[in-house]
Each structure stands twice: as C-alpha cells, then as structure tokens.
C-alpha cells in the first residue's frame, strides 16, 4: 500500500515544485525590464492571510499560462519590501493583480479564481481589437461571448476612435472588427461603417446623434441587460452613473416567491430597456451577505432593492411588490425623488462602516491565528472596541470565508455580517 502511494506522493511534491517554478519573485529592478514583454504581477504582503490562501491559485495561473504558450510572464512582488513599487502602482488592497503591457497597466478586479484571471489575461494581453475575417469566426465569437463589441466596415475615422475606446475598455469586454459580408443576414445595418454591441440574444447599433460619444455609449452598454451579479460586479458599479436595481434571492433552491421576483425584474429590464437604460442597471444576486453589509442590517429574502453605489445609498419599496406596475412605480419614485434615500456615506455612516471593517479584520485574523490575535489585540483594542461598540451599536461581524482579508486591506466587496444577528429593522435605518 505504502509502496503504491510513494510514486503518487513524489509526483505530488514534484508537481508543487514545478508549479511554483512558473512564478517569478520580483524586486524593484523589475521596472527596468518590464516593458520588454507582458507581465502579470501579484502585489502581495506577507502578513495578508488572503494572499497565502491565494498563493496556490497564483502558481496554477503561472503554470497554466506557461503550458498554453502564453507570452505573459507571471511574477509576484512583496510590497512591504519594495514599497516604492507599491506606491508607483497605487496598490490599495492585497493581493492586487495587475497586467502590465507596454506603457499601460490594467488591474484585475474580478473574483480571485484561476479561470477568472486566465480569461482576463488572455483578453487583455491579446490584441485590443481582434478581427473576424469569416462567417465562422463571427459565429464562434457569438457562441463564446455573452457580450462583445464589433466594428463593421473598412478604414474610417470611426475605426480609429473605436480602437482608442477599445484600449480603455478591454479590461471589461471583448472588441472585434469585421467586414460587412461576414455578418449573418439577420444583422441589418443602416450604414457602414458602424459599431454594434451583441448581447442578450440581439444587437444594438451605436448612433452618434442619439448616443453621444462612443466612449460614453460603450460604458453604458458594457453590461448585459439583466445578469447575475456578485460583490465584485457591484463594486465596479461604484464609478458608474447608473443606479443598480437588484433582485436578492436565496443562495440555493430559490423559493417560488424568489423566482417570481427574479422574472418580474427581468421583464421590466428587457421590456423597458430603452426607457431605463441610462438610469438603471438591472441584475440579481444570490444570498444577502453582501447586501446586509452594505445596508448594515438584515435584508429579507427575496427582496428588490435599488442601490446608488457611488454614495453607498439605497432605496427599498414601501410595500410588497406584486405586479409590473408596482415595480415601475417604485422605479419612477426613485428617479423623481419620491422614494426615500437610505444609507449613504455621510459622516456617521462612514464611522459606522469603519467599525464594521475593524471588527471584520479582527474576526478574520482571529479565525486564522486565535492566540496571536488575542494576545496582540485583546488589551488595547478590547477597550477601544467596547467604546466603539457602544457608539455605533454595530452588531458583531462574522466572516466565514477568506475573502475577509481583502476587507482588512480596505477593499469593500466583502462587507459581511452575521446572518440573523441583526435585529434592527429597515425602519430603524431611516433614523441615520
Ligand atoms: C464623452 O462623453 C462623456 C460624457 O458624456 C465625457 O465625460 C467624455 O469626456 C467624452 N469623451 C470624449 C472623448 O469626448
Ligand atoms: C447617487 O447619489 C448622488 C448624491 O445624491 C447623486 O449625485 C448621483 O447622481 C446618484 N447616482 C445615480 C446613479 O443616480
């Protein structure tokens, strides 16, 4: 038995060594040679627990890119030693993942998964605009991507502009170009050259007169009409000019009520697309952990909520929504200011949020190193905490995943709160 296991075990060890061999440990001399080839770099800190959990994933990314023959070299750099590098790239949370290509740098903001990072790397490291030279390639793009932008036509000033905009948005989406005869008959264009977005089983053509400049239009169209959001997507909405209208439903096995809410919102999102496309981004989310942290309370499931991610504000319907009309009414009450804005990032709110983060940080480090944490934090922080606790009436925070370390580094998506512990009602929130 033991003998049979031996080769397996050594293969495992060998595998580990080989895998880590594809990630280079960098120092500050890195800047001298980084422009010669594309680099994918993890900026980490040795104290960051989440960086440690993330390490095997990073090694896998390195090994996979190598085996795919990617031109991208993978590295990592200790920002506590090379602080000047961290400053140069304005690193604010760990682990930060940045793709460096020529003069430009692109930060990855999605989930810390191998597939997510590989997809991002292949998209951003490749050509900014990829050409589709045949009908088959066009079909292929349609089947592979839920959403992509397409320039149709030959040389033109619009094409130059399209390339510029693509370079800014490649971090989020795919950009292609194609001659007109590659398109299927179902795509009809008033004029060529044109730019279109393909999504939600259809396509929309950019019209300069109606849509303003190309960059603003791409920014407006770069999400599907209605899709599943996670904390990372929501976080990205912070720098957008749209409110987020969200259905919040169960993590697993949605109830009949949840399904009804989900399709009600979807119906409004698709049927009223033209009416609402500048004001709302529609989506749904499984589980209420993130939202609970956001509103610092307990959101009932299922729920409909509208969020202003720029100011951490939100709106809730005053009564249960049953019909399309009621949902439309709620949305217009938000737009015309009839619905009350809750939350926000006023002074008190910010203090309260800080308490939340502090508590999460301590909780996270306690989970990974209980004795050290107790020893380090208990005396001085115990006192401070009691004071803060009283001031904020904040509830304890539970973090059941490693994501909490991002929070420790000041990144917002993982705001979490213990399920069921918040007895405060939404009504109570209105007071602050
Ligand atoms: C495009 O329009 C947006 C707002 O409508 C504006 O902020 C941006 O500067 C414009 N960009 C260009 C290149 O004109
Ligand atoms: C969010 O709130 C701020 C402040 O009230 C407002 O200026 C901004 O327009 C709102 N965002 C959206 C997308 O409505």
UniProtKB/TrEMBL annotation:
UniProt domain Thioredoxin: residue ranges: 12-126
Subcellular location: Endoplasmic reticulum membrane
Listed SUPFAM superfamilies: Thioredoxin-like
Main location: endoplasmic reticulum
Organism: Astyanax mexicanus (Blind cave fish)
Cited function: Probable disulfide isomerase, which participates in the folding of proteins containing disulfide bonds. May act as a dithiol oxidase. Acts as a regulator of endoplasmic reticulum-mitochondria contact sites via its ability to regulate redox signals.
Catalytic activity: Catalyzes the rearrangement of -S-S- bonds in proteins
GO CC annotation, single: endoplasmic reticulum membrane
InterPro entries from the UniProt entry: PDI_TMX3 (IPR052250), Thioredoxin-like_sf (IPR036249), Thioredoxin_domain (IPR013766)
Bilayer topology term: Single-pass membrane protein
Protein name, as recorded: protein disulfide-isomerase
GO molecular function: protein disulfide isomerase activity
Keyword field: Disulfide bond, Endoplasmic reticulum, Glycoprotein, Isomerase, Membrane, Redox-active center, Signal, Transmembrane, Transmembrane helix
Domain of life: Eukaryota
Signal peptide annotation: 1-21
Record-annotated membrane-spanning stretches: 369-391
EC code(s) of this entry: 5.3.4.1
A Pfam family it matches: Thioredoxin
């Amino acid at each position: 038995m033991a003998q049979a296991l031996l080769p397996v075990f050594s293969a495992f060890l060998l595998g580990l060594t080989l895998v880590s061999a594809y990630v280079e440990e960098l120092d500050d001399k890195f800047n001298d040679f980084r422009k010669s080839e594309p680099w994918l770099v993890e900026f980490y800190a040795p104290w960051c627990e989440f960086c440690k959990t993330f390490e095997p994933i990073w090694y896998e990314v390195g090994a996979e890119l190598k085996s795919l023959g990617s031109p991208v070299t993978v590295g990592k750099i200790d920002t506590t030693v090379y602080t000047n590098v961290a400053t140069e790239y304005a690193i604010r949370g760990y682990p930060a993942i940045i793709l460096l290509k020529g003069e430009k740098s692109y930060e990855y903001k999605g989930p810390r998964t191998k597939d997510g990072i590989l997809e991002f790397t292949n998209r951003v490291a490749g050509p900014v605009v990829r050409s589709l030279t045949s009908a088959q390639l066009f079909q292929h793009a349609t089947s592979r991507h839920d959403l992509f932008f397409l320039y149709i036509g030959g040389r033109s000033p619009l094409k130059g502009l399209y390339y510029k905009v693509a370079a800014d948005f490649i971090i989020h989406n795919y950009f292609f170009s194609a001659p007109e005869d590659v398109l299927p008959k179902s795509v009809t264009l008033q004029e060529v050259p044109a730019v279109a977005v393909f999504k939600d089983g259809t396509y929309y053509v950019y019209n300069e007169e109606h849509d303003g400049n190309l960059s603003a239009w791409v920014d407006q169209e770069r999400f599907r009409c209605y899709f599943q959001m996670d904390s990372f997507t929501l976080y990205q909405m912070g720098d957008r000019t749209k409110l987020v209208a969200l259905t919040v439903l169960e993590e697993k096995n949605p109830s009949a009520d949840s399904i009804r809410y989900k399709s009600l919102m979807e119906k409004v999102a698709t049927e009223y697309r033209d009416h609402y496309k500048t004001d709302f981004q529609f989506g749904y989310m499984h589980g209420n952990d993130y939202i609970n942290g956001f509103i610092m309370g307990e959101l009932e499931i299922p729920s409909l909520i509208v969020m202003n991610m720029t100011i951490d504000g939100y709106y809730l319907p005053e009564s249960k929504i049953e019909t399309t009309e009621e949902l439309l009414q709620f949305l217009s009450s938000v737009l015309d200011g009839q619905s009350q804005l809750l939350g926000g990032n006023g002074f008190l709110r910010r203090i309260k949020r800080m308490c939340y983060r502090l508590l999460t940080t301590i909780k996270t480090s306690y989970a990974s190193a209980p004795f050290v944490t107790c020893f380090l934090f208990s005396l001085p922080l115990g006192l401070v905490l009691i004071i803060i606790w009283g001031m904020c009436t904040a509830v304890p925070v539970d973090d059941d995943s490693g994501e909490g370390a991002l929070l420790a580094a000041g990144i917002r998506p993982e705001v979490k709160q213990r399920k069921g512990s918040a007895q405060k009602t939404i009504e109570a929130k209105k007071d602050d």
